[in-house]
Design brief:
The complex is a heterodimer of chains A (410) and B (359). With 410 residues, chain A is an alpha/beta fold. Chain A has one domain (2-408). Helix content of chain A is 55%, strand content 10%. Chain A contains 19 helices and 8 strands. In chain A, strand 5, helix 13 (278-286) and strand 6 form a beta-alpha-beta unit. Chain B is 48% helix and 13% strand. Chain B contains 13 helices and 8 strands. Chain B has helices at 7-16, 31-36, 65-75, 92-105, 122-143, 149-172, 180-188, 195-207, 230-237, 263-272, 284-298, 312-327, 345-358; strands at 20-24, 39-43, 84-89, 111-115, 217-223, 240-247, 303-308, 332-337. Chain B has a 4-stranded parallel β-sheet with strand order 2-1-3-4, with helices on both faces. The radius of gyration of chain B is 20 Å and the shape is globular. The model of chain B has no long low-confidence stretch (mean pLDDT 96). Classes of the chains: A alpha/beta (410), B alpha/beta (359).
């Protein structure tokens, strides 16, 4: 144990203080959730839902995906998933969904208590999985289920798709109001939209500090800092957190402090994190002088910041929530990777082929091939699963990573 | 004995008459819209038993065999007679396949993605009508042809008649003097026969319906597609009569008629009012009710969930569907298959045991 700590001390600089602050915010949000059913109304919501309307109606928002990630980092996702599998849910289903359904059926969770929903809201802009998953929840809880269907963008979003999403958001308001027991205050919605825009801009600015050499912020840090932008994006606290983060990052940049002591190579991470192996991956990369300076995943909550328009909250929400990376073409994702590789001066890409996330993963084989063959960027496809450790073969992954490192010359 | 023209003969004949052909991936789209442009839709549900090496260079192993086979089939020249490729959005995997086709594989034929909404609200109808209009515009631009409203309605009329006859086939299933395989071969000829030809074939079959039940223990099938096809023969062998189904390729696409004035809204409404389907966002209760009613009407004594491995839309609902069916006294069995594998001995043994249990 001491040896590992010493090894880490020689490899990594001290962690960002903002990570502790973000963890505290999440812990407080979870603690608030334990009393949420007594104090107000609760919405279960997907990470890509236009949450601003729910916030304006004072819902406590619970994110099953984030809960799944918490179970994953706590090392409990497999044992909780098994509870779902024992009830007939296939291991081929998304491991977030299995974790969530397992928690629902067994009552097991590392956060002690999950508030029951008064309403379920999902948006298909991240995957179709959430549609099927939330239909199960709707059947179980017998509460209203609102779906915002976001047509996939193969090329450019047609006007009728934007109009469709906008209409759905507007039409869902009366249902949300009925569940909330109050009316939507448009000025509050504008204020929250403004905070969402600000938080997303700050988040993106923070990610872009990763362009510095050495990078003061790794993708692993981003994974630990992202929960507030996902589940508390329309709040002043989140804005404050990322303002503080920027100050902290700028201090590091000024003092030439990077995430790792000797930065030799810089890579891009594509797809969801492998939540239960963050430390292992950080360490194996770090000990080779490699830092993950960017991630396509964490940028998803920042790159659309400019689309938020507080003066036109519905229209802008429609555009914003139609365009997450997961709802855009495989070609678009490749272009995004190329842009990041150039902007952040990266030496290669690790594409996590995540068996639990088909919309993110399909296309990666061609993306990898094009990165290597068309653009001369070293790229590695790593087979795993974001929340199911049974799909992670550490020996095999270590071998593949080490071969990749050799190719990178480290 | 009813003779059904083969796919290849149908395609050749249609082309000889000046028409074009579209290869259409699962699940929902408007046949009428394509026919208005003299395009024959020929559906690609896999097909089964295709060497899948070519697709493995684009798709991960955890993507279903419908996508792997379709892509392999395309890459091996199986779709060379197609002038267009249509990829309706049914799930994350077909979405990915559509995107990979457009972005990387770039087949010689134009690829048309189409998004099918996941609900049945007025806004969903409006969106789908707009999606279909967009396809119309592209086809019009491509062909220089602009079918008018009357042409479009005439095409919808023809498809509605074919779907009406298709529904009758489903409903008369128990009284047809045919085997499971023969009945489903006729039902599935809707995947490629022109509507008018399908109607003729199906009406002929319906005329042979008697008033005695065909032999066998009545069962329902649930899933995407009855492939590999030996499942139907195996069920016959074990004494089962498949008297109805909730299969995406079959009963879920017996589209009802629509009386809307706008032809695009009419096409859209037919799709949105089709039987419950998880890929269109139907609630689980709707699916339970549909299966229970079907079992009650057909006298089915059990349900075979015949699932293509990795099919998320199907796999999510199965535990609740099976539980609810059990609660009303209908036993079920879950079989997971790959389109390229024949039924394993293990599956045969499980099926046999299931049949014995029902008996």
């Amino acid at each position: 144990m001491r040896e590992t700590a010493q090894k880490k001390a020689g490899v990594f600089t001290p962690p960002l203080k903002s990570i502790t602050k973000a963890s505290m915010m999440v812990a407080m949000h979870i603690a608030k959730g334990r009393k949420a059913n007594r104090q107000g109304k609760v919405a279960w919501v997907t990470s890509g839902f236009p949450v601003e309307v729910l916030s304006a109606l004072d819902f406590y928002t619970f994110y099953p995906e984030n809960h799944g990630a918490i179970c994953g980092t706590a090392g409990q996702s497999v044992s909780i998933s098994i509870e779902a599998e024992n009830q007939g849910y296939s291991r081929d289903l998304c491991s977030y969904a299995r974790t969530d359904i397992g928690a629902l059926l067994s009552g097991r969770t590392p956060i002690k208590k999950i508030p029951a929903p008064d309403i379920l809201v999902a948006c298909t802009n991240i995957c179709q999985t959430v549609l099927h998953w939330y239909r199960i929840l709707a059947h179980h809880f017998e509460v209203p289920f609102i779906l915002i269907d976001a047509p996939f963008i193969y090329d450019r979003a047609p006007a009728h798709a934007v109009a469709y999403v906008r209409k759905q958001i507007e039409e869902s308001v009366p249902q949300m109001e009925a569940a909330a027991g109050k009316s939507l205050d448009l000025s509050r919605l504008r204020e929250i939209t403004s905070l969402s825009r600000m938080a997303s801009q700050l988040w993106m600015e923070a990610l872009e500090r990763g362009k510095n050499r050495p990078t003061p912020l790794s993708a692993f840090d981003q994974f630990r800092l992202m929960a507030p932008i996902v589940e508390m994006r329309g709040t002043a606290k989140t804005v404050d957190l990322y303002v503080d983060l920027l100050v902290e990052l700028d201090e590091r940049i000024e003092n030439g402090i990077g995430v790792i002591v000797h930065e030799r190579k810089r890579l891009l991470w594509d797809n969801l994190p492998i939540w239960y192996k963050l430390d292992y991956l950080a360490e194996i990369l770090g000990t080779h002088g490699i830092v993950l300076a960017a991630s396509t995943y964490t940028a998803a909550w920042g790159e659309l910041a400019e689309m938020f328009d507080p003066e036109h909250p519905f229209e802008s929400a429609a555009r914003t929530y139609l365009h997450p990376i997961l709802n855009r073409s495989t070609r678009d994702k490749l272009l995004k990777m190329l842009q990041v590789c150039e902007g952040y001066q990266l030496d290669g890409v690790i594409l996590h082929s995540d068996r639990s996330c088909k919309p993110y993963s399909i296309g990666q084989i061609d993306q990898r091939d094009q990165l290597i063959n068309e653009y001369g960027i070293p790229a590695l496809l790593l087979e795993a699963d974001h929340n199911d450790q049974r799909a992670f073969s550490q020996e095999q992954i270590t071998n593949r990573l080490e071969a990749f490192f050799e190719m990178l010359g480290v | 004995m009813i003779t059904i023209p083969s796919r290849i003969d149908t395609i050749k004949k249609f082309k000889q008459n000046g028409g074009q052909v579209a290869a259409v991936l699962p699940i929902h789209y408007s046949r009428a819209l394509l026919r208005a442009f003299h395009i024959l839709p020929v559906e690609v549900w896999g097909p089964p038993n295709v060497p899948t090496g070519p697709a493995a260079t684009h798709l991960q192993p955890y993507v279903c065999s419908i996508c792997h086979n379709a892509l392999s089939f395309l890459q091996q020249g199986g779709l060379r007679l197609a002038d267009f490729i249509f990829v309706p959005h049914a799930c994350d995997s077909l979405q990915g396949l559509g995107s990979v086709l457009l972005d990387y594989i770039k087949p010689t034929q134009p690829v048309f993605p189409i998004y099918i909404p996941r609900n049945t609200r007025p806004s969903d109808l409006e969106f789908l009508a707009n999606e279909l209009t967009q396809v119309y515009d592209r086809l019009a631009e491509n062909s220089g042809w602009q079918p008018d409203e009357r042409d479009l309605h005439a095409c919808v009329d023809r498809e509605e008649l074919a779907d009406h006859v298709l529904l009758q086939l489903h409903q008369s299933n128990r009284y047809l003097p045919l085997t499971n395989s023969e009945i489903y071969r006729i039902i599935r000829s809707r995947e490629y026969l022109p509507a008018e030809e399908f109607t003729r074939v199906a009406e002929k079959v319906l005329a042979s319906a008697g008033d005695t039940l065909r032999p066998g223990i009545p069962l329902l099938m649930e899933g995407i597609v009855p492939e590999p096809g030996d499942i139907l023969e195996t069920l016959t062998e074990f004494g089962a009569a498949v008297v109805g189904d909730d299969l995406a390729s079959c009963r879920r696409r017996a589209y009802p008629a629509s009386s809307r004035q706008d032809p695009f809204e009419r096409m859209a409404e037919r799709i949105l009012k089709a039987p419950p389907d998880p890929t269109r966002g139907s609630s689980i209760q709707e699916r339970v009710d549909f299966l229970a009613a079907l079992a009650s009407r057909t006298g089915a004594q059990g349900v075979v969930f015949y699932i293509v491995k990795f099919c998320e839309p199907e796999l999510f609902d199965i535990p609740i569907l099976r539980q609810e069916l059990k609660a009303i006294g209908i036993p079920s069995i879950l079989l997971e298959v790959d389109l390229n594998a024949r039924l394993s001995q293990q599956i045969r043994t499980r099926l046999e045991a299931f049949m014995e249990m029902i008996e």
